[in-house]
Specification:
The chain is of the alpha+beta class. It has 14 helices and 6 strands. The chain is globular.
């Protein structure tokens, strides 16, 4: 198959066609690509990866086939190789969007690439000494995102498969209420006095996990300090920053939520960096996505107000408040 035809057949945008060149140079992995059967994948998704049956069935039915889906199989082989070659690597692999005309197989091909390296991920965890319950707690975030995808797009899929290139490369771990990712500061990071490339631990908040109780968050950070010092001391300095970038850190929330709210208490644990130039643009997008499961244009008056948080944020949009994404460093 000619690589220069693959991009067009998969509907990859011109801006992302450099991925085709990168994948072509990489080629397939030396070892043959072996996918779990549809039945194995369905069972794994439900029993280990936290998926609802309806999503697991949809994934199983969309198993790629090298003869029926040659372009997608070409892509799958190279994503598989890329994940294997960078086990333990930092940073998400932002794979390009594929044409919706590819149907369910196209919507799930990246998930099948992730499933193809699962045995290697678990081996990496074992070699590091990661407890089995932590492995599965981490990887089961798949189920949450499959549910959210169905709610946002009214069909099964995994539009955020790129997020799981962290999980399946052994870069992020769920430790109690929070997730912690081994990260490196980028060239535009906002943390004064810290160098580009410095290793940090990024704090991420799973949507499914109950209230954001400060005690549980404190316990998660304390657990993470022990976990990474014991198992990743060769990669993560003991004095590494624990950072977070989220709309949850917007100090404006403290002016509109009740004193002592879980979100305000969580945000108060961080020393905020100055806002980025696009803080409000990102804030609007993230609040719509993560709080209202909404993508694209919106009418603030029609946003649901079925909880105190949603009411506060929707009323804020109506009143012209520019909610922000902010970054901060955890302080004990």
């Amino acid at each position: 198959m000619r690589a220069d035809d693959v991009g067009n057949r998969l509907g990859i945008a011109d801006a992302d066609l450099d991925w085709i060149d990168r994948w072509e140079r990489l080629g397939p992995a030396a070892e043959p690509l072996v996918l779990p059967t549809s039945a194995e994948a369905e069972r794994l998704l439900v029993t280990r990866l936290g998926a609802d049956a309806v999503d697991a069935v949809a994934v199983a039915a969309a198993r790629p086939d090298p003869h029926r889906d040659p372009e997608l199989w070409w892509l799958l082989e190279r994503c598989h190789h890329q994940l294997l070659a960078d086990m333990g690597g930092t940073g998400m692999l932002i794979w390009p969007k594929l044409s919706p005309d590819l149907g369910a197989v196209g919507r799930f091909v990246y998930l099948w690439a992730l499933l193809s390296v699962l045995p290697h991920t678990l081996r990496y965890h074992r070699d590091r000494g990661v407890p089995e319950d932590v492995s599965w707690a981490t990887l089961s975030n798949i189920g949450e995102k499959l549910r959210l995808n169905r709610e946002r797009f009214d069909e099964p899929g995994l539009a955020v498969a790129f997020w799981f290139t962290l999980h399946f490369r052994g870069t992020i771990y769920r430790l109690g209420r929070l997730e912690f990712a081994i990260e490196r500061l980028g060239p535009e990071h906002p943390f004064t006095g810290h160098a580009v490339g410095e290793v940090t631990l990024g704090i991420h908040i799973p949507a499914e996990g109950g209230p954001l109780l400060l005690q549980e968050c404190d316990e998660a950070v304390a657990r993470a300090r022990r976990f990474f010092h014991a198992l990743f001391h060769d990669l993560v300095p003991q004095d590494a920053l624990y950072t977070c970038t989220s709309w949850l850190l917007d100090p404006q929330l403290a002016e509109h939520l009740p004193a002592g709210s879980n979100i305000v208490n969580f945000a108060n644990r961080f020393q905020l960096a100055p806002p980025a130039p696009d803080a409000a643009t990102r804030g609007e997008k993230d609040v719509l996505l993560f709080v209202f499961n909404h993508i694209g244009p919106y009418d603030a008056s029609r946003l649901p107000r079925d909880s105190r948080l949603r009411t506060t944020l929707a009323d804020g949009f109506t009143d012209g408040i520019a909610w922000q994404v902010r970054s901060g460093v955890w302080r004990d």
